[in-house]
Specification:
Layout (H helix, E strand, L loop, with lengths): L1 H17 L3 E13 L12 E14 L4 E12 L2 E14 L3 E8 L32 E9 L4 E7 L20 E3 L10 E9 L3 E11 L4 E6 L5 E7 L2 E13 L2 E14 L5 E13 L1 E3 H4 L1 E12 L12 E10 L5 E10 L4 E14 L2 E12 L13 E13 L1
Parallel strand pairs: 8-12
Antiparallel strand pairs: 1-2, 1-22, 2-3, 3-4, 4-5, 5-6, 6-7, 7-9, 9-10, 10-13, 11-12, 13-14, 14-15, 15-17, 17-18, 18-19, 19-20, 20-21, 21-22
Length: 399
């Protein structure tokens, strides 16, 4: 049913887009996965298929007024489709901006940032990919001062919340139950952010009060101490945080962190905890006679919950390398190794992506992810040896 509704919305948007002076972008990705190794103590999931389709539309309604919107459908084998959308009106003045509607905001600079309680919980539900970012009824007001921007966000209505399922091999492997009624999550919240963008340093600081965007996963056990299910629990939190980024010669440095009050650890105890992350990239652009960009990256992450964190790699060291060709229709290769020093677990990721065409854009990719069990026992039992082979095809068309 959700796919049929989304299809009707897409057709309607296409009709509007072709008749209006706007930008229309249609993109889709199909992903297939294969698991050649069974995790210990869990039923095997030999393969999986999932994907999404998105339609984005942008149109100027006047000199200072724009409309941006999209419809996204996420579909996965054996799970109910998730339909999401963003639709916002944006007014831009000389020293101010006002946006309202369904907003999909993000604060953190890292790809897997955990800073943003307004946008996606970029800390993953599964250990492979992050939770999809959902639109939230919100209003954002921005004032542009001398080299500084001040944002005030108000979350003002209901929003849906997709739940983590046990389908993914790198999830918990047991049923997951949400303790908040679907469609009634984070009804009101308030956030303020101050940020600055300068040639040598970008920084921001924020405060957020409201329901936690990502739940804490709490285990339930049987009488014989076997893991039976997982509760996804949300709590009202107060969060303070900040981030900064700077470039020195060929090096790029990033850091971010936050502190939360009234949050939970994996045992269900309320506590105040902090998390920090820092990264350094060496950007060797145009190496090998200009044919390749070579970017090694080093990251450090620490969570004061230690082995009471409900996700792996909250406290970790990571080293990775990206190599991308600079020619038309490039190919990009990534590899990374992570070590969780709280659980003593390891993870290895390798991927390759190739652009086959530019208009429409067509990309194919392959990825392999391997996890190796940690030597420190987790309360939630989140560490198991496992392996995923993952392929994808993405198509994007704009007109």
């Amino acid at each position: 049913m959700a796919l049929r509704v989304a299809a009707l919305v897409l057709v309607a948007a296409l009709s509007v887009g072709t008749a209006s002076a706007g930008q229309l972008t249609l993109s889709s990705e199909i992903q297939a996965s294969f698991y050649p190794r069974d995790p210990i103590g869990r039923d095997a999931l030999d393969s999986g298929i999932r994907g999404w389709v998105s339609l984005e539309f942008e149109r100027a309604l006047g000199k200072s007024l724009d409309f941006d919107g999209d419809v996204v459908v996420y579909e996965s084998k054996g799970r109910r489709a998730v339909v999401d959308g963003e639709a916002k009106l944006v007014w831009r003045g000389a020293n101010a901006e006002l946006a309202g509607g369904l907003l999909r905001e993000r604060w953190g600079r890292f790809v897997d940032s955990a800073l943003d309680p307004l946008g996606a919980a970029n800390t993953p539900f599964s250990l492979v990919g992050p939770e999809q970012r959902l639109g939230q009824p919100a209003v954002r007001a921005t004032a542009f001062l001398d080299h500084i921007s001040l944002d005030v966000y108000a979350l003002v209505g209901h929003r849906p919340q997709p739940l983590p399922g046990s389908e993914g091999r790198f999830g918990f492997g047991v049923p997951t139950t949400d303790v908040v009624r679907r469609g009634h999550l984070a009804e009101q919240a308030l956030a303020v952010r101050i940020s600055s963008t300068q040639p040598e340093l970008d920084w921001s600081a924020h405060i957020y009060g409201g329901l936690n965007r990502r739940p804490t996963f709490l285990p339930r056990f049987t009488a014989d101490a076997q893991l039976s299910s997982v509760d996804a629990v949300y709590t009202e939190i107060l969060q303070f945080g900040g981030e900064l980024e700077t470039t020195r010669a060929d090096w790029r440095f990033l850091a971010e962190g936050f502190g939360r009050t009234a949050a939970l650890d994996v045992t269900g105890r309320k506590r105040t905890y902090a998390s920090i992350a820092a990264a350094a990239e060496y950007q060797r652009l145009g190496a090998f006679d200009g044919a390749y960009n070579v970017i090694p990256r080093f990251e450090f992450m620490a969570d004061t919950r230690g082995d009471r964190a409900d996700v792996p790699f909250a406290s970790a060291l990571r080293a990775g390398l990206r190599v991308a060709s600079t020619r038309l229709r490039p190919v990009q290769f990534d590899m990374a190794y992570s070590f969780d020093w709280a659980f003593r677990g390891h993870g290895v990721l390798g991927s390759i992506e190739k652009t086959l065409a530019e208009s429409p854009a067509v990309k194919v990719g392959f990825q392999t992810t391997a996890f190796f069990a940690g030597s420190t026992r987790s309360v939630l039992d989140i560490w198991e040896d496992d392996l995923e082979l993952f392929g994808s095809v993405r198509v994007e068309l704009s007109w």
